[in-house]
Amino acid sequence: MACGALWVAGCASTASEVPAPPRCEPEAGAFCVVVGTGEAAFTGDDGPASTAAVFLPADVVTAEDGSLLLLDWGNNRVRRIDSATGTITTVAGNGAFAGTPEGAARETSLAHPAHALPGRDGGPLLAVITHGHRIVSVDTRTGQLTRWCGRGVAAYDGDDGPCAEAGFDSPSAIVRSPRGGWFVVDAGNHVVREVDVQGIVRTVVGRCHIEDAPGVHACAPGEPVRACPGSGKRYCGDAAPGDVCFLRCAARSEGQDGPLGGVRLACPSGMSADPGCRLEPEASGALLLTDTLGHRVRRLDFASGTIAPVAGTGAPGYSGDGGPALAAQLNRPADVAALLDGRIVVADAFNHCVRVIDKNSVIQPLVGTCGKTGPAMPQGKARETRLNVPYGVSVDPRGGLLVADTLHHVVIRVGL
Length: 416
Description:
The chain has one helix and 35 strands. It has one helix at about 240-245; strands spanning about 5, 25, 30-35, 45-50, 55-60, 70, 75-80, 85-90, 105, 115, 125-130, 135-140, 145-150, 160, 175, 180-185, 190-195, 200-205, 210, 215, 225, 235, 260, 280, 285-290, 295-300, 305-310, 335-340, 345-350, 355, 365, 380, 390-395, 400-405, 410-415. The protein is globular.
């Protein structure tokens, strides 16, 4: 294994007598561990990432300078791995699962950071705090954290007003919009919302309908829909608003192929919700979305105002490798990444593997043994390793693939 861009344990430094960890730069079809010892713990800050412990890593993304931003979900922290030294440090979070006050980023509490969007040109990074019900802005130069979106309580309100004052419920992802703003998955409300450059938020995909309570039911075609006062929630039935409008909306995957206005999503929600319903921009300007509890990957095209299926039948399971992705079964796909060559990578979380869809829409295993888990391996052939609920995938600008092997408490890099 050659010395290169991301660090793991071994290779001596040529500039010092002090041994430095070797870099994780696997050959095509191989993998190595970037961060994590396999122990569910918080250790190793200010030292090599390869000897640091993490706890349920949810995802990892690459910043402009090549450093990695790790969403250390179980440790309630955002951590950074320096691309030049391989040193890991904490960017935000003190480890407490609690509300997120503004102030010094490393001294505030974060309740399950799930996703992050690195800043451009030295700008702040935006971190999605799922069970803090908000997105925060972290100025990496001053170390200060401020609220960006969400009041910090689980709610669904505030459309057409300031994002900072809007109610979100368990947000799970954020990406840039080709229109200059941002898209946020408001997972607990089963919608995608757009924030414009003035900070005004509005819902663009999905509907939030309450269904699982006495006096309400799934709306029949043409049935009058009742609105919850001061909220984006809706329901059908004879229940009084005060009896049902505090409830969460139902997860229901609908409108698989057609206008965006007919779409409903099925995302993890509630205080026990795990990571899922993530977005990935494509070069065309469309967005890939993991409809996690709908067991599908879908494509949102805002230019045409349509949605189209990409993978999955809607039934949870494992089948279909070597055939059309639309005929393959997925099991709680949590994340998706668009490779530079046009292929699509899916973190098929509950099948314990990562799968790839080629440009002919044929699906194949890429990392792990689909349908099986087992002990973690420190390195080896990507197809032969065993993953344990991989919740995150992202593309390394160097051409590799980063995988958050969440229940093994490691992040690996795969050579492509």
